[in-house]
Please model this.
Amino acid sequence: MYKFDAVSQVILRLIHSADQPLETAEILYLINKEIKVSRRIILARLHALKDADLINGRFMGPGKGVWVWWKKDSFKVPSQKFSPKTVDEEILSIINSSVYPLETKEIANKFPELSHSQVLQRLTIIWGDGVVKGKLVGSGKGVWIWWRVDAFEK
Model:
């Protein structure tokens, strides 16, 4: 059983009220607007909440990368209603059947006939159409992550 303190309660509230995955830097900023806490304590609480199975998190990106956090059960796999016909539909199928946000690289690996840039272009087009959601996380060039539109419905 996880012992809740004020920091853990604020973290849970922030993550459960978010409509998208949050990277650690965003969580640090939002928590420090409410209470002043060190980065070390916040990271410890995030990992403790993840270990207690109260939130989900995943390390994304190459090298130093970035941790991305989201509320538990946001990515339940919906039932498939169609069989993929085009590359865009296959991309949608991959994203819709995922139980966590996916990096562009993970999606591109499913399409050896397409380059990483071609997959990213298709993803940004369907993102613009409002069929999937996406977000750039990390510093510098960062990493794009993608998830289905209804993953954070309340």
Summary: The chain has two domains: 6-71, 87-152. The two ends are 26 Å apart (CA to CA).
